[in-house]
Design brief:
The chain folds into two domains: 196 residues, Rossmann fold, CATH 3.40.50.10780; 47 residues, no CATH class. With 267 residues, the chain is of the alpha/beta class. The mean pLDDT is 97. The strands form two sheets. It has a seven-stranded mixed β-sheet, sandwiched between helices. The chain has a five-stranded antiparallel β-sheet with strand order 6-5-10-12-11. The protein contains six helices and twelve strands. Helix 1 packs parallel to helix 4. The protein is globular and about 50 Å long.
């Protein structure tokens, strides 16, 4: 069994401020990068205990150079940096056959109250909607997994993104490590988060992973609200894109990879 782990940071236990996620502020970043690494390591250990023979971790936050490789099990492999392909946070899924995906450290979508750091890919947009509903990085990447026929069996992060994941994949295993309260978070202890993640990853692989395959819509309509209307105007030059408002860009396709191509160049 091969498992791909896509790891973000804003959904890590305790994190509440942007500086805690940015290398440019090492006095605050260092401890939380370690906690991110510990949570990823726990997911690796749980997956291996659950029967995985190969685990590959995609560092999917910011520079993609956050995880301390020394904290991961020796059986794990780590994909660092950005290859520049359309798979983004799921880069690696295009290589070979995978049995399941685990997402760690994920966060609520732009404009949603589940996390003070709620966003979608970057801070240039204030909303992204997919087929009329708020789109999170979870949803974007879950559809990418489904594009390759791979189920998303587990997610960790804030309560808001765990609830969203359940609404799309009812059988997914979730580990909420904190809850957004306006500009604050109520977090469980980092040690408890690590234990819960390891136990949940093992349990998630004990059942048939196919139960967590997200159905693909027949057509995708992606809507992006950009903070600067000039950016929307410029990106409306992308083939097939159109403006519906001065700051809002829309793109439609039946091919999800074309949606990801649009996002790659326009988000």
């Amino acid at each position: 069994m091969r498992i791909l782990i896509s790891s973000d940071m804003e959904g890590t236990a305790g994190i509440v401020h942007w500086w805690e996620t940015e290398k440019e502020h090492p006095d605050q970043y260092k401890d939380f990068a370690e906690q991110m690494s510990r949570e990823v390591a726990a997911a690796c250990r749980g997956a291996l205990a659950g029967g995985a023979e190969e685990v590959v971790v995609k560092d999917a936050h910011d520079s993609a150079r956050n995880i301390d490789f020394r904290l991961l099990p020796e059986q794990a492999k780590l994909l660092r940096g950005w290859a520049g392909d359309m798979h983004s946070m799921m880069s690696g899924i295009q290589y070979g056959k995978w049995d399941g995906v685990i997402m760690t450290g994920y966060h609520s979508a732009a404009g949603q109250p589940g996390n003070p750091l709620s966003h979608m890919m970057n801070l240039q947009n204030y909303k992204v909607r997919l087929n009329g509903k708020p789109a999170s990085e979870f949803l974007l990447n879950a559809y990418m997994a489904s594009y390759y026929g791979v189920p998303v069996v587990m997610i960790t992060g804030d309560q808001g993104i765990c609830d969203m994941a359940k609404s799309y994949i009812p059988r997914i295993t979730t580990v909420p490590v904190k809850q957004g309260l306006g500009g604050a978070v109520l977090s469980i202890h980092p040690g408890l988060a690590v234990r819960k993640i390891e136990e949940a990853a093992k349990e998630a692989l004990s059942e048939d992973p196919s139960r967590c395959l997200l159905p693909m819509p027949e057509r995708f309509v992606i809507e992006i609200g950009l903070r600067k209307h000039a950016d929307a105007s410029s990106r409306a030059n992308y083939p097939g894109a159109r403006l519906t408002e001065a700051d809002t860009l829309v793109f439609e396709s039946e091919d999800y990879m074309e949606v990801m191509r649009f996002m790659h160049f326009c988000l």
